[in-house]
Amino acid sequence: MSDLDLKQFSVRTDLALEAKEIAEKGGAVIPGVSATTLDDNGIRITTLSVDNEHGSQAIGKMIGNYVTLEVPGLRKHDSSLQDRVSTHFAKQFELFLQRIGVHQNAKALIVGLGNWNVTPDALGPIVVENVLVTRHYFELMPNDVAPGYRPVSAVSPGVLGITGIESSDIIKGIVEQSMPDFIVAIDALASKAIERVNTTIQISDTGIHPGSGIGNKRRGITEEIMGVPVIAIGVPTVMFASTIVNNCFEMMQKHFQSQTSNTGQILGLLDQMEENERLELVREILSPMGHDLLVTPKEVDEFIEDIGNIIASGLNAALHQAVDSTNVAAYTH
Amino acid sequence: MSDLDLKQFSVRTDLALEAKEIAEKGGAVIPGVSATTLDDNGIRITTLSVDNEHGSQAIGKMIGNYVTLEVPGLRKHDSSLQDRVSTHFAKQFELFLQRIGVHQNAKALIVGLGNWNVTPDALGPIVVENVLVTRHYFELMPNDVAPGYRPVSAVSPGVLGITGIESSDIIKGIVEQSMPDFIVAIDALASKAIERVNTTIQISDTGIHPGSGIGNKRRGITEEIMGVPVIAIGVPTVMFASTIVNNCFEMMQKHFQSQTSNTGQILGLLDQMEENERLELVREILSPMGHDLLVTPKEVDEFIEDIGNIIASGLNAALHQAVDSTNVAAYTH
Amino acid sequence: MSDLDLKQFSVRTDLALEAKEIAEKGGAVIPGVSATTLDDNGIRITTLSVDNEHGSQAIGKMIGNYVTLEVPGLRKHDSSLQDRVSTHFAKQFELFLQRIGVHQNAKALIVGLGNWNVTPDALGPIVVENVLVTRHYFELMPNDVAPGYRPVSAVSPGVLGITGIESSDIIKGIVEQSMPDFIVAIDALASKAIERVNTTIQISDTGIHPGSGIGNKRRGITEEIMGVPVIAIGVPTVMFASTIVNNCFEMMQKHFQSQTSNTGQILGLLDQMEENERLELVREILSPMGHDLLVTPKEVDEFIEDIGNIIASGLNAALHQAVDSTNVAAYTH
Amino acid sequence: MSDLDLKQFSVRTDLALEAKEIAEKGGAVIPGVSATTLDDNGIRITTLSVDNEHGSQAIGKMIGNYVTLEVPGLRKHDSSLQDRVSTHFAKQFELFLQRIGVHQNAKALIVGLGNWNVTPDALGPIVVENVLVTRHYFELMPNDVAPGYRPVSAVSPGVLGITGIESSDIIKGIVEQSMPDFIVAIDALASKAIERVNTTIQISDTGIHPGSGIGNKRRGITEEIMGVPVIAIGVPTVMFASTIVNNCFEMMQKHFQSQTSNTGQILGLLDQMEENERLELVREILSPMGHDLLVTPKEVDEFIEDIGNIIASGLNAALHQAVDSTNVAAYTH
User: C114: helix, coil or strand?
Assistant: First the structure.
């Protein structure tokens, strides 16, 4: 990842939910952005829409639809919670397709972005290995496919360092040859908050843009480029060391504020700074020595496997009427 | 693999060398096919060309160039032999490119055919993971690339069961986007002879055709389809149980013939049969019960890894002037 | 594997069922060996006991209990069949423990023999990675373990080439330190018949002896050496090329005999030979050129994974009362 | 890892070098601890000995010998630096063996501690897979072993959650059966400083104690328990989120102090705190919400593979006279 890419992470977030929270700090109300929230026993689902240019400017996210599942307990390797998340994800994804007008027989191409040799970046490829692929049955024996399935294909384009070709170009080539009606692109993200790493899943219809995700994409995967709608599924799997430090400062401030009225002197200069200013300072201190690492939890292998299975199961149930939450596990490893 | 594909294996071989040997049985001389052989201490290199339609008909292989490296000791995990094979392969591949008129700066796309989840079919993907990829340097900073390199990209398109899309279509899409000057396609083959499994490497310029290789390709990877020359690298990694039986019959016949003059009664009815007829019989007997399995040696993991590294090292040295046999190992895992 | 080990495979089988079949050829009745058979829709279960020295001599297997599950369809990757096999295996294993007097709270050590780097030899290690391990809960918080579980530990000792130590010695050391009440040892076997490869599971209480399995064990894993009962679970995963040839000869003979009365001249000299004599001939012909390979089906990765999961699920249900066939899948990957 | 174990990390370090640095803060001179340092172009080697009980108390490390290689550039995937580190490591390890009186023919058992399913904890098992194992040659054909080798065996005992048995017990059992003269135990550690993660290797002769390493060992691997000397090789591969925060505070303080004279008000309350007190505060703030994660760099797969190969190559050269820095690569993957 080039320094250029890293810069971008410092000033923006890939999650619309976070962008809205940041914009609303200090109590601002943002016209042009609407959101509803649903809680189900440890799973919070936020349906957010950026309705106009005003809202888009205010939170720095494109006009479009965003759904976020937040599951703080997801790092606990609890298989019954995982099943519930998968079922919720399937339902939300199905509703999302309806909302943006994707027909139930529309042909899907699932794209697993990221580097399969770098565990926290391997989420996309893991999902691709576990989804139910059916397009070839429709091509080779269209009359024999049972009802309740749609044509689904799936590829992992790899990353620039492995292929020498932009993943955007690889996908465009495949789209032109295989002609799907829409694309579902899964990507690992860098998080702005410790608590979101491997606990949050975002669905959006605004495509994938250069500088998003962990990998160093230089060209986007968007409806404009691909010619068909692109639904992105993003999961934060890494964070910068500076993010951790900055998060902790904030928690400290809140902690002390609740204990004393004389907040001015608690963290000294840091108290005076705005969040972005403080983050910039932390990065200036850590970066020169190469200490602003992108880090991931020690249990990354298990977390990526678990979330990969949740998304694959959810996609199988959402994309095929014949697959539902009771038999969904049979379709993944 | 469908029954249809299996049928094809019974009447043809992917190796031009074998096809020629079969056609020459009984002492026939084949006009239109020429071959020269070079031996170097356990490595036999045969350069074969099918020059005209007559030769093509006679041996059942397309007009074109074929180079075969036969290394009976390759299954012995001998690293100094492996280095020698890699060096020979590199030299032969470089000569091959010259012979068919591929310029030394021509842009290469390396394609690893086959299924990475099926070890004996994973040769292509393993090569792709180990070759030196440079195309992105030429794209992103063309003035900074050191002399002695050419643009090389590499992809593993997967198989129909994983992607739902013909590998031929995936490659065509990528070719149209990334515009290489030629393709190098690596594929695992089914062998007609026990002794060739994981010991033989064939280079050819006739492309890859449906029914060749282990996987069930329905469309070819040829210059006609791709618009650029296709150099195929094939390695036999599996064989049918019926092949083993048929090979053994032949060895038995030779064994007995050297011991007795009364050859007529040794193997009874089998003595009377032609090779193809006998193979057909064996397959008729094994197939109904599902016993005509495609098998691979027990040590398949190690064999595929070893040959994958030989080919990757050889390609690195052949494609880049700056990489030679003394530093080639540094460019693979 | 040394030539010595290979020799042993030619004259013996690791499956008591096969040994009995061979001994009974020509209609012999074997006193001292009793067997009952149960068929359930594609699964055949044979419970066999060698009751005395006479029976042991006759079939070349030790006095003891043997249960075999034969499932010809197991190579078809049918998950509902796999579930049924797992359930049957669990029930048979539980009955087996009762029959040989292993108490339901007896402490188990599960041993996965074989080389994890050689896929067809990796069955044991795969089972070990998927069984439910509980011993440490009993050691660390004995009062908090829910009812319905027994102490189970599990290790994969590796092979001589990886560790430099006999697996028998490693296990003995672990047994002395951890003091289990019995051992369950899983091992991959070489098959005498194409149709048994990855379709047959044998449970026995006679331990594991040098020369059995694929790996080159020089010391046994037996009650005599370990001091506690050893239950072996064996699955044929490889076969010799010579086995395939010999199997095919036999099928040919039967095929021709059903078509003609003049059987004498069909396969010439081969007709006159006994099975062992013929196998010896085949091996003499294939071996000198290194062609008597141990081979495994092309799909070995999938087959080993599938059977590993069947055995792990079955052991979990058999060893723990709290785990049964309805929730067994939750305890394996 | 239990909360208990986590606590221990907060107050101690596994690296003697760090312990000495912490104790020397403020300029204290520590009698009973001596150290010499050697620098070679990006590699710093510190040879440290804790000579008496006084020194041991002062820095909180046992009496014994410690050698540390610090290589800040090791995360840059530079293969020529890696070769140099491996050569230095080999030389230091050989000197270490001489210093503590291990004879050049003494039999070694290499133990790879940690969990092979958790990448940052898999260092030990990766080393074990790559070392040259020779013990079985000495056992099976003692007269045929070439000069320049010693008997070396190697095992990865796994972790409690996989085996149900303490790794200490497994090793003790194997030691009693295979009777090595000394043990080399490789373990992944938690770091107290960002800059040490995957850049530092420590050799020591004080064994491995409960609470050290990443895994939750409850019993030690020491000469007292094993009956033979234990040489530990430790590499920090993970760090706590709180460590990152605390490191950053310290860097901030230094940064500001160099810019202003009025240091008292810069970080407010934090300026007044001692390091341990401040770390405690950070942990109190992060822990309740489960945010004091153990994290590892995103590129963990590559880092662990690289350092595993360095250590394996180094051990091969150090343990066998016949293997040296010019041919060492041939003995690892």
Answer: coil
The residue among A266 and D169 whose pLDDT is bigger is: D169
Q: Shortest Cα distance from D176 to chain C (angstroms)?
A: 7
D174: nearest CB among C135, C161, C165 = C165
Q: How confident is the model at residue D150 (pLDDT cuts 50, 70, 90)?
A: very high
Which residues from A are below 8 Å from C330, CB to CB? 79
**Chain B residue numbers touching D333 (CB-CB < 8 A):** 333
CB-based contacts of B9, cutoff 8 Å, min separation 6:
B190, B211, B240
Instruction: Name the CA dihedral angle for A241, A247, A253, A258, rounded to a multiple of 10 degrees.
Output: -140
Mutate to test the interface with A, among B116, B131, B134, B165 (most CBs of A within 10 A): B165
Q: Which residues of B touch D130 (CB under 8 A)?
A: none
Average pLDDT on B37-62 reads 95
Computed over every residue of chain D, the mean pLDDT equals 88
Report the interhelical angle of A123-130 vs A300-319 (nearest 10°): 50
Find out whether C293 and C241 touch, Cβ atoms under 8 Å: yes
Q: CA-nearest residue of chain D to A302?
A: D118
D165–C177 CB contact, under 8 Å: yes
Give the rounded distance of the alpha carbon of C1 from its chain centre.
18
Average pLDDT over residues A265-281: 76
Parse chain B into domains and list their residue ranges.
Answer: 7-242+293-321, 243-289
Report the distance separating Cα B255 and Cα B250, nearest Å.
9
What is the DSSP secondary structure assignment for residue A60, as one 8-state letter? T
Q: Is A135 on the interface with B (CB under 8 A)?
A: yes
pLDDT, greater one: A79 or A311: A311
Q: Please, what is the average pLDDT of chain A?
A: 88
Strand partners, A64: A50
- Average pLDDT for residues D89-107, to the nearest whole number? 96
How far apart are the C-alpha atoms of A242 and B21, rounded to whole Å? 67
Average pLDDT rounded to a whole number, residues A89-93:
97
pLDDT > 70? residue B4: no
Torsion, Cα D232 D238 D240 D241, to 10 degrees, reads 160
Cβ–Cβ below 8 Å for D155 and C165: yes
Are B252 and C281 a contacting pair at CB < 8 A? Answer: yes
- Across the interface, whether the CB atoms of C285 and B251 are under 8 A apart is answered yes
Our CA-based measurement puts residue A1 at a distance from the nearest CA of chain B, in whole angstroms, of 14
What is the four-CA torsion angle of B292, B297, B301, B304, rounded to 10 degrees? -90
- The helices-and-strands tally (H runs, E runs) of chain D is 13, 9
For A47, residues 6+ apart whose C-beta sits below 8 A from its C-beta are: A35, A36, A37, A38, A65, A66, A67, A92
How far is CA A169 from its chain centroid?
21
Chain D CB contacts of A301 under 8 Å are 117-119
Q: Which of residues 239-258 of C touch B (CB under 8 A)?
A: 241-242, 244-245, 247-248, 251-252, 255-256
Q: How far apart are CA B181 and CA B105, in angstroms?
A: 9
Element (H, E) at A300: helix A300-319
How buried is residue A250: exposed, middle or buried, by Cβ count under 10 Å (0-12/13-18/19+)? middle
What is the reported pTM? Answer: 0.92
Q: Which fold has domain A7-242+293-321?
A: Rossmann fold (3.40.50)
SS3 assignment, position C161: helix
Give C13 or D98, the one with higher predicted confidence.
D98
- Chain D partners of C135 at a C-beta cutoff of 8 Å? 164-165
User: What ipTM did this prediction achieve?
Assistant: 0.91
Asked if the C-beta of D267 comes within 8 angstroms of chain A's C-beta atoms, the answer is yes
CB atoms B293 and C297 under 8 Å:
yes
Question: Rounded CA gap, A212 and A14, in Å?
Answer: 6
pLDDT of residue C289: 74
**Could you give the CA distance from residue B23 to residue B6 in angstroms, rounded to a whole number?**
21
